[in-house]
Amino acid sequence: MNEERYAQHVRQVLNHGLNDIPPAAARRLEAARHLALSRQKQVEPRLALAGFGAYAFKSGSPIPYLKQTLSIVALLLGMWLSFYWHSVQYVTELEQVDTALLADDLPPEAFLDNDFFEWLKDDSSAE
């Protein structure tokens, strides 16, 4: 509300001095204004490969919500990479244990592990 009041006050002050401007200067100012507006209308955004990113992130871009879409895609890609990396690590650990079991290179401490005994019980009950 204060901004509107301030804008009205500025407009009143500017309009107050409008009558003091000589007619020749007023015509030149009006011509300059029309020239600036005509040049502004002629400028259209051009989609170039190098400048597309800057144009696409403006509020009037042809692809709405591009920032949000790219953010979601980046987040999903990061999550997928994280899950993939952890699954590869898990499978690698299992491969090492299986290889050690098959090669009889398992250290004696592994046989003292309670999880190993549970695995043996579950495996023997399946037969």
Can you walk me through this structure?
- The chain has 127 residues and is mainly α.
- Helices cover 74% and strands 0% of the residues.
- It contains six helices and no strands.
- The protein has helices at 2-16, 23-42, 52-56, 66-102, 108-111, 114-126.
- The chain is rod-shaped, with a radius of gyration of 37 Å.
- The termini are far apart.
- The mean pLDDT is 77.
Low-confidence stretches: none
First-last Cα distance: 81 Å
Order of helices and strands: HHHHHH
* Beta-strand residue percentage: under 5%
Shape: rod-shaped
Notable traits:
0% strand; mainly alpha; 6 helices; 127 residues
Quick recap of the structure?
The model has no long low-confidence stretch (mean pLDDT 77). This protein is mainly α and 127 residues long. It has 6 helices and no strands.
Per-chain topology:
Elements: H1 2-16, H2 23-42, H3 52-56, H4 66-102, H5 108-111, H6 114-126
